[in-house]
Amino acid sequence: MNALFKWYDSITERLRAGGDWLAPLGIRLLLAHEFWKAGALKFRDPGGNVSGFHARQDFPFPFGSFPDALNFFLVTWFELAAAVALILGLFTRFFAFTLVVITAVAIASVHWPSSWDSLGQLWEGYSVSRVMDDGEFRGNFRIPALFLAMLMPLLFMGGGKLSLDHLLVKLTGRSDAIDDRNGDYLALSLVLLVPGLVFVYLIPLWGVILLLGAIGAAVYHKMSAA
Q1: Which of 96, 122, 130, 185 is buried most deeply by CB count within 10 Å?
Q2: Alpha-carbon torsion angle 79, 85, 87, 90, nearest 10
Q3: pLDDT at 89
Q4: Whose CA is closest to 162, among 97, 99, 90, 103?
């Protein structure tokens, strides 16, 4: 049995090592392709249809208080810049976070059901088509939800070894930072903060609970370190 465990552990060690090179690269390239297409369509804006569609959306706070032209400009250029950055693996965590915000806002304003009475009914919106029931939009948030799930590894784990981020860490003599882990309460706070920022737009109660948990974990970390 010990020999089996050792064999399994030796395989998983090499899979993790290989994954540092390969796994983030595939996610980065797929997301870069999708967001480049989205940004390029907005940039071309054929017939003004795309900007007109955006202007008709009810964006959540604080974006709803911005001028329509500013919102459209920001999302266009952040999508294009993020796509290039993901291909290069440059500032991966920053651009992954910006895309999390863009995607969460898009879900809340475009893809989220107009109303739902239960989690089962909400699940009907996990679709790529516009599901209608009694004349009400039941959502089509499947693809942006998948984008969010793909962005999380890039936000928390980085762009991997095939990235300019990794090269910059090497060049600045911080190679130890690649494998360092600190699983303290501040880490827990960040784990709660990111989904909290997403859910506060979608299911506010869940978002508030997660954000309060993030604040509580950060406060506890500060107090225990004092």
Answers
A1: 96
A2: -160
A3: 95
A4: 90
Structure tokens at 117: 């009475």
Helices (H), 45-180: 49-55, 68-88, 92-106, 119-123, 142-157, 164-171, 176-179
Indicate the helix (H) or strand (E) that contains 9. Answer: helix 2-44
10 Å Cβ neighbour count for 15? 12
- pLDDT per position as a tens digit, 148-166: 999 999 999 999 889 999 9
Q: Which tokens go with 215?
A: 């604040």
What pTM value is reported for the model? 0.90
- Per-residue pLDDT tens over the stretch 78-91: 999 999 999 999 99
The distance of Cα 220 from the centroid of its chain, to the nearest Å, equals 26
In angstroms, rounded to a whole number, what is the distance separating the alpha carbons of residues 171 and 169? 6
Q: Which residue has the tokens 């506890």?
A: 220
| pLDDT confidence tier of residue 133, bands split at 50, 70 and 90 | low
Check: CB of residue 72 under 8 Å from CB of residue 51. Answer: yes
User: How many angstroms separate the CA atoms of 109 and 86, rounded?
Assistant: 25
Which residue is it, tokens 């290039």?
84
Contact 79, 35 (CB under 8 A): yes
Q: Is the peptide bond before 153 cis (omega within 30 degrees of 0)?
A: no
Give the separation between CA 171 and CA 125, rounded to whole angstroms.
Answer: 46
